């Protein structure tokens, strides 16, 4: 389990991203440590995918810096996978498209995510949840020390969502990797996280899940939906996680003193300070 002394696998320091004269990210700092699940939540268009891309060097940053630990191996499951639906493609083939792995390695990864029985099936016949599990397995064959999952529960129903988050927790426990998770949907996501960052161009609030729940900014952004979502969290989360002390505004409400217009992200905010 991670502790506050674990070194950061990846660390962003005051990064900002501008594109087309627009600020997409404003002064964001965050760290992901070994054995830790960090979740980025926020409204549509809040900059979650942009932040992931900036961390992965897929998006140019205008200010700030990103530091990665030496030998960092990242397994990335993007939000969208552009696959031509007319292209015949089995799960096995998908698993070897970009990396050559032996049969047993592929089978082990698919076993771990519970979809080994789909090995020879066409990916076009998979359910949303099965597809996400295949993509997770595909990221796992690289034996990453950092898993980056952009909306891993998309297309998955409530029960499947819960199972997927449990699986993600198990992967974290088994591999002791760091996990950076993105979601705009709040169902269950908080429960699985050590640390939550609420992003709406800038960081509105961040900290341990129970602390974010108390944040006025969180309540304003997610309203009743957010409060309802936290119920399962409060009831289940007294035991197994080892929440981190974090260098990111642990449990603090946004204390900048600015008014936030959450429907229309703007950039007058200083963002998070370390
Ligand atoms: N390359 C770009 N140039 C200009 N604007 C961009 C670019 N990439 C993203 N944007 C804009 O930045 C904003 C944030 O997009 P992003 O995809 O990061 O949001 P998100 O939080 O992941 O949203 P969602 O929850 O809908 O997936 C959006 O308004 C988007 O249109």
TrEMBL record:
<dbReference type="GO" id="GO:0006829">
    <property type="term" value="P:zinc ion transport"/>
</dbReference>
<keyword id="KW-0547">Nucleotide-binding</keyword>
<keyword id="KW-0067">ATP-binding</keyword>
<keyword id="KW-0813">Transport</keyword>
<keyword id="KW-0864">Zinc transport</keyword>
<dbReference type="GO" id="GO:0016887">
    <property type="term" value="F:ATP hydrolysis activity"/>
</dbReference>
<keyword id="KW-0862">Zinc</keyword>
<dbReference type="InterPro" id="IPR027417">
    <property type="entry name" value="P-loop_NTPase"/>
</dbReference>
<keyword id="KW-0406">Ion transport</keyword>
<keyword id="KW-0472">Membrane</keyword>
<comment type="similarity">
    <text>Belongs to the ABC transporter superfamily.</text>
</comment>
<feature type="domain" description="ABC transporter">
    <location>
        <begin position="10"/>
        <end position="225"/>
    </location>
</feature>
<protein>
    <submittedName>
        <fullName>Zinc transport system ATP-binding protein</fullName>
    </submittedName>
</protein>
<dbReference type="InterPro" id="IPR003593">
    <property type="entry name" value="AAA+_ATPase"/>
</dbReference>
<dbReference type="GO" id="GO:0005524">
    <property type="term" value="F:ATP binding"/>
</dbReference>
<dbReference type="InterPro" id="IPR017871">
    <property type="entry name" value="ABC_transporter-like_CS"/>
</dbReference>
<dbReference type="GO" id="GO:0010043">
    <property type="term" value="P:response to zinc ion"/>
</dbReference>
<keyword id="KW-1003">Cell membrane</keyword>
<dbReference type="InterPro" id="IPR003439">
    <property type="entry name" value="ABC_transporter-like_ATP-bd"/>
</dbReference>
<dbReference type="Pfam" id="PF00005">
    <property type="entry name" value="ABC_tran"/>
</dbReference>
<dbReference type="InterPro" id="IPR050153">
    <property type="entry name" value="Metal_Ion_Import_ABC"/>
</dbReference>
<keyword id="KW-1278">Translocase</keyword>
């Amino acid at each position: 389990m991670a502790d506050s002394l674990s070194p950061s696998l990846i660390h962003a320091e005051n990064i900002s991203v501008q594109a087309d004269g627009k600020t997409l990210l404003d002064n964001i700092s965050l760290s992901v440590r070994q054995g830790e699940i960090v979740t980025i939540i926020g409204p549509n268009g809040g900059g979650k995918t942009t932040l992931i891309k900036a961390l992965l060097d897929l998006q140019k940053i205008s200010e700030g810096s990103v530091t990665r630990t030496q030998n960092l191996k990242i397994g990335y499951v993007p939000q969208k996978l552009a696959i031509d639906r007319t292209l015949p493609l089995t799960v096995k083939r998908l698993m070897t498209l970009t990396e050559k792995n032996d049969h047993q390695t592929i089978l082990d990864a698919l076993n771990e995510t519970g979809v080994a029985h789909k090995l020879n099936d066409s990916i076009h016949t998979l359910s949303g949840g099965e597809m996400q599990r295949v993509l997770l397995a595909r990221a796992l064959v690289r034996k990453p020390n950092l898993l980056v999952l952009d909306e891993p529960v998309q297309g998955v129903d409530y029960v499947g969502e819960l199972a997927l988050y449990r699986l993600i927790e198990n992967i974290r426990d088994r591999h002791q990797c760091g996990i950076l998770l993105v979601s705009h949907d709040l169902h269950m996501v908080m429960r699985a996280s050590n640390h939550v960052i609420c992003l709406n161009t800038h960081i509105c609030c961040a900290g341990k899940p129970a602390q974010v729940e108390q944040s006025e900014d969180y309540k304003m952004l997610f309203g009743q939906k957010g409060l309802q979502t936290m119920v399962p969290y409060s009831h289940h989360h007294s035991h197994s996680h080892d929440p981190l002390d974090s260098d990111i505004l642990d449990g603090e409400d946004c204390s900048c003193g600015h008014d936030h217009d959450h429907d229309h992200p703007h950039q007058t905010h200083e963002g998070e300070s370390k």
